[in-house]
Amino acid sequence: MTTPSGPRADPRAIWDAAVAAARPGPLVAHELTAGPLAGAVRHARRVLVVGAGKAGAGMAAGLEAALADTLDRVEGVVSVPEGATLPLKRVRLHPARPVGVNEPTPAGVAGTEAMLRLLAAAGPDDVAVCLLSGGGSALLPTPADGITLADKLVVTKLLHRSGAAIGEMNAVRKHLSRVKGGRLAEAFRGRLLLSLIISDVVGDPLDVIASGPTAPDPTTYAEALAVLDRYDLRDQTPSAVIGHLARGAAGELPEAPKVLPPNVVNRVIASNRLSLDAAARTAAGLGYRVLDLGAFVEGETRPVATAVAGVVRSIRRDGQPVAPPACLLIGGETTVTLGNDSGKGGRNQEFVLAVLAKLAESPGDLGGVTILSGGTDGEDGPTDAAGAVADAGTLARAAALGLSADDHLRRHDAYPFFDATGDLLRTGLTGTNVMDVRVILVV
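Request: output the structure for the sequence above.
Response:
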């Protein structure tokens, strides 16, 4: 990524620092050289590597670097998005879905089945290392018996469109899967399974990140059915899915494991909190007073943006809760509930446009304010942008082009708006994923 110069250099430098803190290679290498289980991995008869996620390539590279002197004992397969591969020696990076498509694919099924075969062949002295990061759910799509990939795709799209929270989505997906909800760990019979995790979920719950393939599952078949009912999706869901979940709720199918053996160890090595801390240090070093609203921000994007705009106004007008020059940091991950007439965009682009539009309601409130919001993975919805960065000049350019922020917001159509004004945040894939980071400067 290249940081631009000019008036937007500071917000971009702060955001880049957040992303850099979650670089997977050094984090994995540290765990496997200095972590509490490094010796157990290094002295294993074989090290079997599995996993999935947007950070998979960097995580696997970090593993090979840490185990460089024992690579002949390493074998593995990790599913990643297409284009997110690196030349590795012993771990095969399996392209499991196109970039920008967060849905299950046949290629993802093939990669997951390869992992299951590898783990099933483990001997009693073998160690497995599972590398998990954001996007892992869609990259581990092998369905349960009686469920087709097409069935799972229908359910995934329905849940996305309904604005279901990630925990709700995963409660359903885990009960339609052969590997999620701790079932991947169940397939392993070796000495130790060490799962290294880069969290893309608010609060870092192990059972939710990548749908918890190596974590106990606290949800049930009955809860999965309740999610579909909560969003009135039962009638639109394939009958095979409803039948499968109903049989599970009736006790006719085994639940996902509620407890896993002590040889399964999960360690979160990167999170949104870690990245916000790095962003705060960088902002302070650039001379800003930092107000960090934390990593637990979630909910519908537009109301969150309205609340944030109120905080920005208070900073500008009253110097409270922090006086300018101020840097407002916000982590977490919001959602956008789409309608039938929805346009193109993502939650970060919509956030920036919503804050921009709200501040524009009062003359002068946008002066000296820059708003940046981006997905730390470099993706935001089904677009080629990570998010957007905007200021008063954005609205001036929009007015000259005859664009209305309110009209684009109504249609969830932020991408064309920012594409036209030149304010999209295009970074390419970053190789990590710790949710979103928003940087708002008030000077």
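Residues 273-442 form a domain with the glycerate kinase, domain 1 fold (CATH 3.40.1480.10).
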